[in-house]
């Protein structure tokens, strides 16, 4: 029988294996250079959705990713809206706006 702690540890291990620290740091570096997260992820051979999934599981990475996306976002966009998300912004506020719509 599986215990919840075992499930959590397995989720963390899977996320660490799927997107190892070297890929995570290279992704953050690309984002800081202004590369869009979809493009940066694909350049590194990672599905962008898997990046966000790993960020939810690996909290330190998630915090770093959100801080980077917030710092690098386009100040001209209406953040926290579906419009911002549709214009390719993936900051926490724009992702949240889309999630509220679902």
Rg, nearest Å = 15 Å
Our measurement of the CA-to-CA distance between the termini, rounded to an integer number of angstroms, reads 34 Å
Count of β-strands: 0
Low-confidence stretches: none
Order of helix and strand elements from N to C terminus? HHHHHHH
What would the average pLDDT be, to the nearest integer? 93
In DSSP terms (H or I, runs of 4 or more residues), the helix count works out at 7
Query: What structural category do the secondary elements indicate?
Result: mainly alpha
Choose one word for the global shape: globular
How would a crystallographer describe the biggest sheet?
Answer: none
Give the % helix. over 70%
Task: For the structure shown, list the relevant keywords.
102 residues
Structure description:
Helix 1 (4-18) crosses helix 4 (48-57) and helix 2 (21-32) packs parallel to helix 5 (59-71). This protein has helices at 4-18, 21-32, 37-43, 48-57, 59-71, 82-86, 92-101. It contains seven helices and no strands. Helix content is 71%, strand content 0%. It has 102 residues and is mainly α. The mean pLDDT is 93. The N and C termini lie far apart (34 Å). The chain is globular, with a radius of gyration of 15 Å.
Q: Layout of helices and strands, plus pairs?
A:
Elements: H1 4-18, H2 21-32, H3 37-43, H4 48-57, H5 59-71, H6 82-86, H7 92-101
Helix pairs in contact: 1-4, 2-5, 4-5
Q: Would you summarize the structure shown here?
A:
The chain has 102 residues and is an all-alpha fold. The protein is built from seven helices and no strands.
